[in-house]
Design goal:
Helix content: 40-55%
Radius of gyration: 31 Å
Shape: globular
Largest sheet: 8 strands, mixed
Structural class: alpha/beta
Distance between the termini: 61 Å
């Protein structure tokens, strides 16, 4: 960078030597140019991204016309970097600052330029309050939170992701006397002149009469942030860089803004920010099959409800495999059209379920939507997912053709690319599928949480498995629904096993955010749905629908001695013997079975035992499979794909003609409850809470195969069987194994086993019995078959569970951002952390103590590889600065493990220093693995034990 500009004479008014950008440029870029650029991009975003309803809401809140609101808020966006006209910021280019500081007009207190902790966005907040008051913005120094001038200044001060607190009257009136980094009058006058010229160029003479409520403030703030990002792209700035003799006259500023406005159109179009349109399509035009009873009822009744009462929240409860996803997507079309929504976000409980949903949302978007249909996958490992991997470098498509397609009115390209895949940007795409964590993070006081809220605004929010979250996540979900209600964003909640109490808390949270303060009773029916409109908050009576999946679930409850962790021969009456007996028909007569275990270690030991019990099956490819989380990512992906091929939905047009599948057993953990669409002839599960057992049972006879497609030992696929292995004595706390109690609440296990033991005829009618059984297992007056002593014990355990739930919910409430109704004009309530809130608590999953390890295998030749077989070498640049492709390759061999494993092995092998600059690599623990004498298993020391790697995944032995 040169300092040619420094010889330019000082302008008689606006000083164009004050710079705003300089990185990667030949010379500094005047701050006034960047302000105008940002305002220009904001205006395009206002027209392109915001819908008419939101624009009207913003205008009404400000007391302006929609056209004036556009100009005024674009003026605000332009002012976001006014705080760069301060000594600490300008001093970052010493040569430029030396010329300014040598002039008497730019006086400041000694050392003011070194106060780098007073960041430019903070200076924007401090300086703007009085400047906006000077041009007529309402300002009452005694009621600063309610004053428009302070609200706007605080909003713009948060454009780097965090809002500062409300400034005191003293701070505002004394200015540089209490904050010397603002500079004295010459600096203040330049800020005033810059504001005046920007206001003139943007035509923002109107003065708002009122401020924005918090839900609209985060929308405007989000637009400001995105406008700043797009306007700050170095290639764009280079194009707009003024000549060296440019002085920033009014005519030159007008000309610059005209050029910048043209470039803004191009930048927004290339970013693929925009709006998807929910077309009026019939169900069978979106999906390749006619609607089932649940879907048909929504098709026939929801449109009229929404037409009469407007958009809102739909709650759908139905058994696993009953088409809830398609019902939700169709409901999203109805709600999205009514709400003038610009897209949708499909939130799921795990990365695996998000990966599975991504192609389904893509197919829906192609069939049901038009406009800008950029689709992103959102979770921490999305860029490693095979369905989302960035293969643009390998594409032979002409980039110009690709851009023309992207910009086409009908949005011919569905998946996102380029700009939207950058950091913090994927949630801004019009369409997304990802984990619930990506949305819940908006409820934590972390950087750019308001941007996440903006990313969710004007979208239909679909949440799958609404029942699957503990007290901590549930509390954050409640807060999120309050914000979505305030934003008037449509919501669709899905669940297979939702209690009335949980359903009520979720629906009431949405209604509360929308302004309905009176709770209403919610009693979901099963299968069925209900609707609450965002305008009045009125909740419809739940509609019970029919189902094509009426069945009788046989419960085979077996009380067994818990010998899963014993290496000796199975004991009579033990779990191992029971499993062998139950699975013998599979091994001898064909068909498939799922065995669902509580922990990874128990799944691994179960696999060993079954391989020993059925050696012929174990030797056959795919005879016995093992699936859990403690495989390297690549290996788990391969196993999951094999499972979907072996146990998935029948292919072809005549599934009833399918033959009986060859004998095969899948041993797995809870990962199969939600992540895969699998169908087994028999499901066996260790004891778990009733909701989880019903989820697993939904994998039994999930798809119609007909009698010819089921083994002879299964008499009727409409009467599937669930075998539940309950530890002996599990009707009391002492009978619950430690490994099981570490995963599930013991009182729920006792309630479940007691309830199952008392079932009439050992059967559950699905769906008729499901809702009342789910509610019953959580009932306060639960007394099924318990004597007085057992009742007292259960009551004590229930009190403990209730206390733990209350503590988690209270902690979550302390950590979470304020509800919209509690912001009360102070946006810092989205950024402030209460005393005692540590980094460890800024999480969507409390107590998720996990680590990630990368096993490095030293082969006999001394060569180090990423796999046991020695076929995948480390990337050549792994020790220096790994490329993106190298990082991707390394991460596909990473294995998640308990945090204690990672801590006890930290330091066994040092990470390359360059990894500390790579977020994905700097937390990895390297494990130097050496083989045993046979080469079947590899191991490394781990504190007081050994970690081994084999075809069963990672294990830890003491």
């Amino acid at each position: 960078m040169t300092d040619e500009r420094l010889t330019a004479p000082m302008c008689t008014a606006l000083d164009c030597r004050l710079w705003g950008k300089e990185h990667g440029l030949d010379r500094p870029y005047p701050v006034v140019c960047h302000l105008l650029d940002t305002g220009a991009v904001y205006r395009v975003l206002w027209d392109t991204v915001l819908g008419a309803t939101t624009r009207e809401r913003i205008a009404a809140a400000l007391g302006l016309t929609v056209e004036a609101a556009r100009d005024v808020t674009a003026f605000w966006a332009a002012l976001h970097d006014l705080g760069k006209i301060t000594p600490p910021f300008q001093a970052q280019v010493p040569a430029a600052f030396a010329r300014l500081s040598g002039e008497s007009v730019y006086r400041s207190a000694p050392g003011a330029e070194r106060q780098r902790e007073f960041r430019h966005e903070m200076a924007t907040h401090w300086a703007l309050v009085n400047l906006l008051a000077e041009v007529g913005y309402p300002m009452d120094y005694g009621k600063r939170r309610q004053s428009v001038a302070h609200q706007v200044a605080q909003l713009l001060g948060g454009h780097h992701g965090r809002f500062s607190g409300v400034l005191s009257k003293k701070e505002l009136l004394l200015g540089s006397a209490v904050q010397p980094a603002l500079g004295e009058e010459g600096w203040a006058e330049q800020r005033r002149l810059h504001l005046g010229e920007v206001r003139r160029v943007l035509g923002a003479e109107a003065v708002p009469a009122g401020g924005l409520p918090p839900e609209l403030a985060v929308v405007v703030c989000g637009l400001v942030v995105v406008a700043d990002w797009l306007a700050s792209q170095t290639p764009s700035v280079r194009t707009l860089l003024p000549p060296t003799d440019w002085i920033g006259s009014p005519e030159q500023l007008d000309a610059h803004f005209a050029r910048s406005s043209r470039q803004a159109e191009e930048a927004v179009a290339a970013s693929r920010l925009g709006r998807a349109h929910f077309n009026d399509r019939k169900f069978d035009a979106i999906f390749p099959f006619p609607p089932n009873p649940l879907q048909r009822d929504i098709v026939e009744r929801l449109p009229a409800l929404v037409a009469e009462r407007g958009p809102g929240l739909v709650l759908i409860t139905a058994p696993t495999g009953d088409g809830k996803t398609e019902a939700a997507l169709y409901a999203a079309s109805i709600l999205g059209r009514a709400a003038d929504a610009r897209g949708l976000y499909f939130a799921l409980p795990t990365m695996a379920t998000a990966d599975g949903m991504f192609p389904r949302v893509r197919r829906y978007a192609k069939a049901a939507l038009s406009g800008e249909r950029a689709l992103t996958l959102l979770h921490s490992m999305a860029w490693l997912s095979p369905i989302y991997a960035d293969d643009s470098a390998e594409s032979d498509q002409d980039p110009a053709l690709e851009l023309s397609q992207i910009s086409a009115p009908q949005g011919t390209v569905v998946e996102s690319d380029g700009w939207l895949r950058g950091s913090k940007r994927p949630i801004l795409a019009s369409l997304g599928a990802g984990t619930i964590d990506q949305a819940l993070t908006a409820m934590l006081p972390v950087t750019h949480n308001a941007l996440r809220l903006f990313g969710l605004s004007e979208k239909v929010f679909i949440l799958d498995e609404a029942h699957a979250y503990g007290p901590w996540m549930h509390q954050h979900l409640v807060r999120l629904l309050e914000w979505l209600g305030a934003l008037r964003s449509p919501v669709v909640l899905l669940s297979a096993t939702l209690t009335g109490q949980v359903a009520g808390s979720l629906v009431d949270a949405y209604r509360r955010g929308a302004g309905s303060r009176d709770p209403q009773p919610v009693e979901p029916c099963y299968p069925g749905w209900l609707f609450a409109d965002v305008g009045t908050g009125q909740v419809t009576r739940p509609r019970r629908t029919g189902t094509l999946r009426t069945r009788t679930l046989g419960i085979d409850l077996r009380t067994v001695a818990w010998d899963v962790d014993q290496m000796s021969e199975p004991v009579v009456g033990g779990r191992c013997a029971a499993l062998r007996q139950v699975l013998d028909p599979v091994a001898t007569g064909g068909g498939t079975a799922l065995v669902c275990c509580t922990t990874v270690a128990e799944a691994q030991q179960t696999y060993r035992d079954l391989s020993q019990a059925f050696p012929g099956l174990a030797e056959r490819d795919g005879g016995i499979r093992l699936l859990h989380s403690r495989f390297p990512a690549r290996e788990r992906q391969r196993i999951s794909e094999e499972c979907e091929a072996a146990y998935g939905k029948p292919q072809g047009e005549q599934p009833h003609g399918a033959a009986v599948r060859a004998p095969s057993i899948l041993v797995a953990t809870q990962v199969v409850e939600q992540s895969l669409d699998l169908d087994f002839d028999l499901v066996v599960s260790d004891l778990a809470p009733l909701a989880q057992l019903l989820q697993r049972a939904g994998r039994g006879c999930r798809h119609a195969r007909g009698k010819a497609g089921r083994p002879a030992w299964l008499a009727d696929e409409e009467r599937p069987r669930l075998v539940v292995l309950a530890p002996a004595g599990s009707t009391g706390a002492r009978g619950i194994p430690r490994s099981m109690a570490a995963v599930y609440d013991p009182s729920l296990l006792i309630r479940t086993v007691t309830l199952l033991d008392g079932l009439p005829d050992g059967e559950i009618a699905v769906p008729d019995d499901v809702q009342h059984l789910i509610d019953e297992v959580y009932a306060e007056d639960f007394t099924h078959g318990l004597d007085e002593a057992a009742r007292r014990e259960l009551k004590g355990m229930d009190l403990d569970r209730t206390a733990r739930t209350m503590v988690e919910q209270s902690m979550a409430e302390t950590v979470a951002v304020a509800a919209p109704a509690d912001v009360n004009g102070d946006l810092s309530k989205l950024s402030q952390r209460d005393i005692g809130v540590t980094e460890e608590l800024l999480t969507t999953r409390l107590g998720a103590d996990t680590g990630r390890v990368l096993c490095l295998y030293k082969q006999s030749s001394g060569h180090i590889t990423l796999d046991r077989e020695g076929s995948v070498s480390l990337p050549d640049d792994w020790r220096s600065k790994p490329s993106r492709d190298s990082v991707r390759q390394l991460m596909t061999f990473v294995t998640p493990v308990p945090g204690t494993w990672a801590r006890t092995t930290e330091g066994l092998m040092e990470r390359p220093p360059s990894w500390e600059k790579q977020p994905l690599l700097r937390q990895l623990v390297l494990l130097p693995m050496t083989p045993d004498s046979q080469g079947n298993s590899w191991s490394c020391d781990a504190g007081d034990g050994v970690i081994t790697s084999s075809s069963l995944g990672l294990e830890r032995h003491r």
